[in-house]
């Protein structure tokens, strides 16, 4: 027979029961509390040698643009908006799925909390990326901006990570591989990376998701900033070859070697 409950024990039991109510309520609400994260997934890819929304992505004036074969696909990720609440369930799902990634909100949206501010920032970054890509391509081609004009058009895509692909696209349309062929060698090649006017290729975010988008859209080769090889190798889709690059010349040399079948001169991660 259980021992009788003393008044002290009875008060303690009531106290614990009362204290447990807010704790249980707090734990129950955790899955619905907004967390300082954003969730990303593979986005669209665009062939910079072709058209997007009815317009040529790269337009050349001052020289006859070449007819090209193959594709050069810039890659994107799609991220939850700056005002979208991400809860614990979203975070757990992002951590357990290979086609999702959880990122700190402030790293994704370093400026502003409104859609308008973010959109303006991304468009400004894209404009700087396009200008740097044009400068890098003209330097490589030894052309003056007075004799060769380049127009770049890519609506609804922001950020600087298409710089490398823009540069390669300009070069392919003007000079190809420099030996009468195409830089692509007829392949579907994708990639990512910022670029400076001197041809330096910089790091970007979301590389594992971009490799998935690239393979989904038919790419067999992916150009990746060398410093992000480890990230690119994580969950790398089958059939996608990684080529690391640090400079524009690295990418061109590797693509030429790939085209000619010189595998020994095609670097790998």
UniProtKB/TrEMBL annotation:
Taxonomic source organism: Streptomyces aureoversilis
Top-level taxon of origin: Bacteria
Segments forming domain Lon proteolytic: 159-253
Presence of the UniProt keyword Lipid biosynthesis in the record: no
Cited InterPro entries: Lon_proteolytic, Ribosomal_Su5_D2-typ_SF, Ribsml_uS5_D2-typ_fold_subgr
EC class: hydrolase
GO molecular function: peptidase activity
E.C. designation(s): 3.4.21.-
One Pfam entry name: Lon_C
Designated name of the protein: S16 family serine protease
Keyword set, alphabetical order: Hydrolase, Protease
Signal sequence, renumbered to the chain: none
Coiled coil (UniProt feature): none
């Amino acid at each position: 027979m259980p021992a009788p409950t003393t008044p002290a024990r009875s008060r303690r039991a009531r106290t614990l029961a009362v204290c447990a109510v807010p704790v249980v309520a707090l734990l129950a609400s955790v899955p619905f509390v907004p967390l300082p994260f954003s969730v990303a997934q593979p986005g669209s890819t665009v062939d910079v040698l072709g058209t997007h929304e009815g317009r040529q992505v790269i337009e050349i004036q001052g020289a006859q643009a070449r007819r090209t074969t193959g594709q050069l696909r810039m890659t994107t990720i799609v991220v939850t908006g700056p005002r979208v609440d991400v809860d614990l369930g979203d975070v757990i799902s992002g951590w357990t799925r290979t086609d999702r990634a959880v990122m700190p909100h402030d790293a994704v949206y370093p400026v502003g909390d409104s859609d308008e501010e973010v959109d303006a920032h991304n468009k400004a970054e894209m404009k700087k990326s396009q200008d740097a890509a044009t400068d890098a391509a003209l330097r490589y081609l030894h052309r003056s901006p007075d004799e060769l004009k380049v127009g770049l058009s890519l609506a609804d895509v922001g950020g600087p990570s298409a710089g490398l692909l823009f540069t390669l696209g300009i070069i392919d349309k003007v000079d190809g591989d420099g030996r009468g062929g195409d830089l692509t060698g007829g392949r579907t090649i994708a990639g990512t990376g910022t670029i400076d006017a001197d041809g330096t290729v910089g790091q970007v975010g979301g590389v594992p998701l971009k490799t998935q988008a690239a393979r989904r859209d038919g790419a067999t080769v992916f150009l990746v900033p060398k410093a992000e090889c480890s990230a690119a190798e994580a969950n790398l889709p089958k059939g996608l070859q990684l080529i690391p690059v640090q400079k524009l010349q690295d990418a061109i040399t590797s693509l030429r070697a790939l085209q000619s079948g010189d595998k020994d001169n095609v670097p790998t991660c």
